[in-house]
Design goal:
Number of strands: 13
Shape: globular
Number of helices: 12
Strand order of the largest sheet: 3-2-1-4-5-6-11
Strand content: 15-25%
């Protein structure tokens, strides 16, 4: 039995990793600023003795005192994410994400951890893709750059680049192994509400006219189901080949936002018209990972097609919105409205 700390354990990817690790017989500590009903249910189940849950603000260094003094593995998944947050509160994105990185490193300097996995993002490639026409599918060796430091959307990517540098270069000095994973549009039931698919489902459920706007219709993404992402993440942590390396965890099926909306419209039974529309400010035109390295080194082979992944995700959100519920935060805001608040 390993002792494993998951920072950001109540988040979408975090809680699914926690559940998998507990089911594999490990003792897991979930630490997050928010609570998770799924983890509370797990805590009250037959496997509950293998899980402890701490809720605190870990951007405050004093919060780390509640944790144990040593772990075998640490999954560093905690971060502020979301386009709207970067546009409306960019200073908080910078403060919280960099604090989480530095506080975690200060903690492991005093408390032994054998290996750390840091979760990064495909957002890191946006500047290289836009400015230098980087090859797509994109591999892990593509140089990273900032296209417009004045644009608030870069606050998130810059904190992820900072985290990669900090963990990789502190690993030797602080005596731990380190692997970086760059997540690529991970989706699934109950993934939160500040993302494209929940927004699209919300709009179909609340559509008051006969025209559905496809925002960023010609932009492309590659979606990966949460079960595949969890497997890839744990493989990245456990593989000896992964030490000191960076891996894409995602799927390499590139589709346009137009294809995505039409498919979701099919699932939702929509019979009306579609209209192409603007996209969110700073949104990258194309994104698709090359996952060859993860396949070769980790034997990572995503099982779910993009259509199966989207359908499973859409069905959960359709049930949510058709029940009359509304998200507490992260609901849909039209790009036109976001642009006005950004300006």
């Amino acid at each position: 039995m390993k002792k494993i700390l998951v920072l950001g354990g109540a988040g979408f990817i975090g809680r699914n990793i926690v559940k998998e690790l507990v089911s594999n017989g490990h003792f897991v500590t979930s630490a997050d600023i928010k609570e998770s009903q799924e983890l509370e249910n797990l805590k009250n189940s037959s496997n509950g003795d293998n899980l402890e849950i701490f809720t605190a603000d870990f951007s405050d260094p004093s919060s780390f005192r509640i944790l144990r003094e040593s772990y075998d593995e640490l999954y560093m998944l905690a971060a502020v994410v979301g386009v709207n947050r970067t546009l409306k509160n960019p200073e908080e994105v910078v403060r919280i994400n960099t604090s989480l990185t530095m506080n975690t490193l200060n903690y492991v300097r005093e408390n032994p951890v054998k290996k750390i996995l840091f979760s990064s993002s495909s957002e890191n490639y946006a500047g290289t893709s836009d400015l230098f026409n980087a090859q797509i599918p994109t591999d892990e060796d593509v140089p990273l750059c900032i296209s417009d430091v004045k644009h608030p959307r870069w606050t998130y990517a810059m904190t992820k680049m900072h985290g990669e540098l900090a963990f990789l270069h502190c690993a030797k000095a602080y005596n731990f192994k380190c692997t970086i994973v760059r997540y690529q549009n991970i989706i699934g039931p109950n993934m939160g509400f500040g993302h494209a698919i929940p927004h699209i489902v919300e709009r179909f459920c609340k559509l008051s006219d006969k025209v559905f706007k496809i925002y960023g219709h010609d932009q492309t993404r590659a979606f990966c189901f949460i079960d595949d992402a969890v497997k890839g993440t744990i493989l990245s942590m456990e593989s000896l080949k992964a030490d000191g390396e960076i891996y894409h965890i995602g799927k390499d099926e590139e589709i346009s936002m137009s294809e995505l909306c039409l498919f979701i419209g099919e699932i939702m039974g929509y019979k009306g018209k579609y209209e192409n529309a603007m996209t969110y400010p700073g949104s990258v035109a194309r994104r698709c990972p090359d996952i060859t390295k993860a396949k070769n080194d980790l034997k990572y082979n995503p099982e779910f097609s993009w259509k199966d992944s989207v359908k499973k995700t859409v069905n959960w959100y359709r049930d949510f919105f058709e029940s009359g519920r509304n998200p507490d935060s992260g609901g849909f805001e039209p790009p036109e409205q976001v642009m006005r608040s950004y300006d």
